[in-house]
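Progress narrative, work stream C.
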Amino acid sequence: MQFLTRRPAEPVCAHRLCIPLGMTMIGLNHKAFTPGLVAILLTLALSACGNGGSDAVSSGGGGGGGGNNMVAGEPAIAPLSLALSPSNLVVNSGQLIWSDAASPFSIHMMPTLGGSVMGLALQLNTPESIVVREQDVFWVETGWVLHQTSQMGTTTLAKGANCAGDNYDFVVDDTDIYWITSTCSPNTYSIQKVPRSGGSPTTITTTSVPILTLAGDSTNIYWAEVDWPSPAPISQIKKFPKSSGPIQIVASEFHALRGGLAVDGNTLVFSDCDFNDSYRVFSVSISSGAVRNLATVTVHDSTIPVVSAVTVDGANAYWIDNTSLKFVSLSGGGVTNLATGLNSPADLAVDFENAYWTEPTQGTIKKVRLSGGPITVLADQIDIPKNLVVDSSNVIWTEGSNISGFGRIAKTPVQGG
C-alpha cells in the first residue's frame, strides 16, 4: 500500500535493512543457473515482451461516480527486469529497489527508466521486508536479522526471534529503528529499538498478547495488540512517545484489526472485522484520543468482508475490501464507492489524482480518479501482479510467472497506454 507524499522528514514504515544506493554487483542469476545463462534468458524474455507484454485490454467491471463503466485501451507495458521471485517493491529518487528470495542477492536496484540491475547485498536468509529512507535501504530477513549495508560492506545491526508470529513490520526514523520480536514457551511479543548508528537494542514493551502491526510518525510509535478470546477477538491500539514517557492506550475494545494502521498528521486510521458479515473503519485523534466511527459496511452474501489495505491523504480515508474501493471524509459523512465489482483487489496506491490497485486472480492493474468516474484498466493479462508502486510518471509492479521460478518487474504510464 502506498500514498505519495512530499514529507521526507517523516519516518518510513515497513519490514527492515540499510544500504546507500550505489553498489554495483550484478545480481540476476539464480543459484541453479550460471550468470551467462540467466543473462541470455533475460535478454530473450525482454525481447519477447517488447513494448507490450499483453494484448488489448478488455472491458468490464464497475466504476465509482461514473457508473459501471470500464475504459478499455492498448496497454503500453514496458518490462524492466526479469526476476526470480520479486517482492517488497519500493521506488525512491528515480530508483527501484526490491527483494528476491530466489536470487543470490537479497536486494536489487535499478533505475525506473530502465537500465542495469545492481545487486546490493548478498543473500543470507529470506528477505521479508524493505524500507527506504533518504538514500539508505533497510531490510530484515527470516530469523529476524536486521542488517545495514554500506559501500564498506554489510553490518548486522540486530538479531532477534520471531517464533510466535510472522510480523516483520518495522519503522525507521532519523536516529532509530523499531521492530517486533517474539519468543515461544510461553509466547511473548516485544517492541525493540536500535540506533541506526549501531548499538545494543532497547526493549520498549513486552506482552503476552500478539502484536499484529507497527507504524510510526515523527513523535510516536503505534501498534495493535489483538487477544483472541471466545467468541470474538479484542484489539487495543497503543502508542509510545519517542521522546520518553509512558505507553498509552489510544483505542480499545475493537475486533480483529485488518489492513494495518495508517498515520497522517494528527489522525490514525484503522479497520476491524467481526469475521461475520461486517467491518468498520475508525479514525482516532492522536492529540485528543477522540475515536470516530467513519464507516460500518455490511455484506449480505456468503463472503466475510475484510479490509486488505487502508491509507489516508489528510482529508479522506481510502480502503479496499473484497469487492470494492471506498473512501470517506476524515471529518465524517457518507461512504463513497470509487469502484465496485472488483475481484479480490490486493495492493493499493493513491496519489494526488488517482487510486491504483492490483487484482492478482484477474491479472489486471486498474485505476480510478479520486473525483470519481469509470475504472481504467492499465494492464491486463499479466501474471499474478503483486506489489504496486507509483511515481510521477508510471505504475510499477512485480508479478509472478507461469514458468516456475521466474517473474518480472514491469511498468506502464500513469495516464494509460
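Work stream C, second folded protein:
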Amino acid sequence: MMNAIKNTMKELDIFITEQNIKPKDIKGELKEFFHIFSDLTDYRFKPFTTYKLENLLGICFVMAIMGKFTSFYNVEQYVKLKPTLFIRLGLVEKDKYPSNDTYSRLFSHLNNSEFSNIIISRIKRFYEKVEKYQKTSGRRMLSGDGQVVKGTGRTKKDEKSERSINILNFYDVSKGIVLCSKPVEDKTNEIPVFQSLLKTFDIKDAIITADALHCQAKTVETIIANKGDYCFAVKENQKSLFDMINKIIDKRHIDNEFGYSNRDYKIIKLKDGEITPEWKGAKSIVKTVSHKREAREGKVGEEMLFITSLTNIDEIAEAIDKRWEIENGLHRFKDIQLSQDKIRVRERCALQNMATMNNIVYSLYRIAASVLHVTPQQAKIIYEDNPMGMLKTICSLMIGNNFTMLVKKNMRGTKESKK
C-alpha cells in the first residue's frame, strides 16, 4: 500500500532522525511562550483584576502538562501547596495565589475560538514547515467523534440526575491537531453540530471519516458541496442503505479484493443509479472483515460495510484503517494521560476551554514523542514531573523562527561534517 493519507507526525519523526536533532539543541525563553496568551482578549473588569491573564493560563497549562487539570479547585490547592515551580516560572508571587473562582470566571468567559487558534495556529505553521522540508505527500484526513466526560455527570437521590456531557471533537488525523471541541447535549445532537463544523473549517480535498451515527444524507451532501470526500461505516441506523449495499454485494462482481493491516477488503465501484440519489457523491461500497480482535481475543472476524466517495483503493483502505485513531489515540490519551474523564466542571464554556487546553497539550506531546523517539504516552511520563523540560524544548519550537533556525544550523553542521 502507498501512503495515501498524509502523516505529518511520522514525517517529523523521520526528519528529526535524519537531521540528528536532540532535545538539548532546542533552546527558548519560557516567558516568550507564556506571552503568547497575552494576545487573547481579556473580558475581565480591569479595576478588579489582580492576576495577569497570561499567568493564569500559564498555570493551567502547566497543570495540564502534568495531567492534573481536572478542576479549578485542584489548580488552586496545587499552587498553594506546591508553589515553587510556579514562582520560578514567574506565574505567581509568594503567598499571592489565585482562587478557584478566579480560574472559573476566566475560563467561563474566554473566547474559545480565539484561545484555540492562538496555539493551534502555531502548531499548524510548525507542521507546514516540516511538510516543506520533507515534501510530504498524501491527502489530509479529518475525523469527528464524541467523547463523554464522565466526571461531569451527577447522581442525585432526591433530584433528577444529570447526564455526563458529551464533547464532539473534530480532529486532523494527519497532524494530530484537534480543530475544535464542542460540548453537545447528547449523542444524537452530534449530527447537526458535526454538519456545522464541516461548513466552518476548510475540508477541500480532505477525506472525512466518523462513526456510523454520522452516515447521514445531509452530512455527505455538505462534504461534497465543500469539495471534500467521505468514507463512512454503514450500520442498521440507516436500514434502507444497509440493505441496499448488502444486495449489491450479493449480486455484483467484486472489483477489488485484498488484505491490508489484518483486514480483508471487498470493494465495488458503483454504477449510475445503484444507490439512491440522496447519497451525494457515492462512488464505492466496501465490505471488510477485521481479524484484529480475532488474533488478539480469539473472536470471529468482525464484518463492516462502508459507503464512500473515493475510488482509489489505497485511500479507501487507509481511511478505513485510520478511522479510529481519533478514539484510540486522541480520546484515550486525554482520558488516561491527561485525566480529562475526571473533569467535573459542567459550565459549557469553561468545559470547552478546559478540553481545548488538553487538546493543545496533546498536540505538543505528539511532537515531543517525535523529538524523543518515544510514544506519546512515554513522552507524558518523561515530562509529567518535569514540565519545565516540556516548556524549554517542545514549546520553544512554536516560537518565532526557532525551528527554522535550528534546522538550518543542523543542515550546516551536516554539510561541514561531510567535508
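The two ends are 38 Å apart (CA to CA). No further action is required on this item.
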